[in-house]
Give the backbone structure.
Amino acid sequence: MTALSVIIPTRNERENVALVLDRLLACVDAVDDVDVEVIVVDDSDDDTPDQVAAYPVRIEHRPPADRIGGLGGAVMAGVRLARGRWILVMDGDLQHPPEVAIRLAKAAMESDADVVIGTRYAGRNTGLDGATRLFTAYSALGLAKALFPRRLAAVSDPLSGLFAFRRDAIDLDRMRPQGFAVLLDLLLRHPGLRIAEAGFAAGPRNAGRSKASFGQGVVFLRHLLRLRRHRLAGQLRHRTGGSRLRELGRMVAFGLVGLSGLGVNTAALWVLYDRLGLHHLLGVCLATIASTTWNFALTDAVLYRRGPGRAARFWRFALVNAGLLVPRLPVVEMLVRAGVNVYVANVVTLSALFLLRFLISDRVIYGADAQRRDPVRTLVDLGPPLASRTRYAYLPYRYDVWGLVRIGSQIMLPELEYFRAPRLGADQVDITVRVGDVGGRRPRHRATMTRHVGHDVLRYEEHLGRLGANFRLELGPVTDVVVGPLLAHSPHVVYTNIVEALLRFTLVSRGHMLLHSATVSLDGVGIMLSALTDTGKTATVLHLVRDHGAVFLSDDMTVIDASGRAYAFPKPLTISSHTLRAVQAEDLTPREWRRLRFQSRLHSKGGRSLALRLARFNLPIMGMNALVQMIVPPPKYSVDRLVPCRIGDSAQVTELFVIERGPSGETALDPADAMERLLRNTDDAYGFPPFSHLATALGYERLREQEREILSGFLAGVRGRVVASDRFGWSDAIRGHLTRL
Ligand code: GDD
Ligand code: MN
């Protein structure tokens, strides 16, 4: 089957088309083992068809009567003739340099995107000749973006004439492009497309005149309005989120709840400040807790009438309100110092944040779970990558994960401390982590993942330019990671969002898998536990270790192989509030203990679910995450600090328990089912962005296949059970089960 069809629409391009085809065919020849066909769809009145005749390309000449749709119709006619799995559309006047166009198409074919757009707005050169043409191009762009702000949010050049798309991602019968709005029509009529962009410098038109005219402008406007109407009709049919009017209603109700909350807040502040004599800022904090609880009870029960999952919603709600204390407190203090009454200052700052609180509650906390459009923009860079400047070459921290993966890092990675290997040579590592300058100087509208084609370089940059959470990966025999300064201060984020993902890929290439699960060895029997995040897995492990004398191997991730062997992977434990009860605190100072209780709140369910929800919006989520981790570091205690225990090396696993919440009971689990659950739970652990972008670039599909194979070997000698409990009774059930064996 043809791999790529190149479609070139032409209208009176007699001086240009031969040059285009010469250069195009020259680089198509160089494209090894890609089978390419070229289709020229011609609407000319000059002798363009004669110019094309000498070339090994297909020409479709449309006589004047058949020229429906103009440029758009011509492209569609070409697509109907095309046999390629991928289709590249490009202009026939050399404004799209054929070498660049082919490079773009090849990049697209290697990517997992459905459409790759050549954008003129990623660099300076727009290639638009003349001020008028420039002006109309910008107006058309502005208009399109204004009419479809969300759908075109991540697309900088929806009117580009250079783009490549996957043939089977597009439904031809849906498309009705008119004139120049070909790509726009395609994008708007296929909402679910995975889109990437590649910046390129458009050249000047070689000869002849542009076919953009006043008439084309009118065609464009009419088409835009038609698309808009079509979209509105679609919206009415699929509307789920409620109308503007209903949103306004919710805002009013939210306001009434908030008003009552103001009363509660002020009363609480009066008691704390006036009666109990607390410092006014402390009073403001504590009063906020009181009113938050009040507001939540009313909002949740009356306004949104939500069912289960209440605790998680409460913690999201509470975290948002606690977070808003950060901007509030300094303002309260300023006002008070300026002589404003404490109660007035409190109410003023609360009211000022009303709209923000409503929006966060409505969109983030109570917003529909439906997947929104991915906020991260994907760019393909067709040029060679810029080297990132690192200030430092020496890697003081070396880690050796069971001789399988070796890491050298400039920053300490607390999660890997167990694997510290000071004697490991710098030339023996598989992954390096350094600090350097990544990312452009200027801020950007959204987070971007850029892939350099043919160089295996990936760059993730967030909104804040150099200051944001940026990193760069260069893949090769050694994977080099460079993280920006912000991430360098949050090694926890570097580890969980970058290094652990890379570990997973490297381990698989060595026949091992990093499985989201906990493992202990009890009386010589290897036991694996799996659960969705935040079920109670860690608590169960701690109970097994503390009450039943199990040897600890891992709590969050386990290294396994296809022979059923599990290797220890002891990270510092993430202690959620329900896990605290299983901790034996003798070794902790009272201060550490207090801190742990606070940290456990933030870093458990509420914090994670809030972060996951925020990640769907156009926010610098990794940077926010890094900041939070810097302010409240995650609990950093290793398991033997929390409960006295021995950490083992490896164990042959024969028992698997999938733990669930629910009425107590045990059911057998067949191997296929066990496999699905383990994989699902592993995916769940990697839900946080930008993992999905990293993963696709690194070849996630293949990884999953290989992991499947390893896991199926591992499970061959394992008996699986589902253990349900509603009272955190898993460890006793497991113990009981083993004694019965
Ligand atoms: N078959 C056919 N029929 N081809 C056409 C027609 C038509 O009615 N009109 C234009 N073309 C061909 C031209 O021969 C050229 O190869 C290509 O389409 C682009 O036309 P230009 O006339 O060179 O357009 P431009 O350079 O002003 O516009 C560029 O920017 C637009 C957005 O601002 C192009 O890249 C357009 O595709 C793009 O939409
Ligand atoms: Mn042109």
Remarks:
- Residues 91, 93, 95, 205, 210 surround manganese (II) ion (ligand 2) (CB under 6 Å).
- The chain has 23 helices and 25 strands.
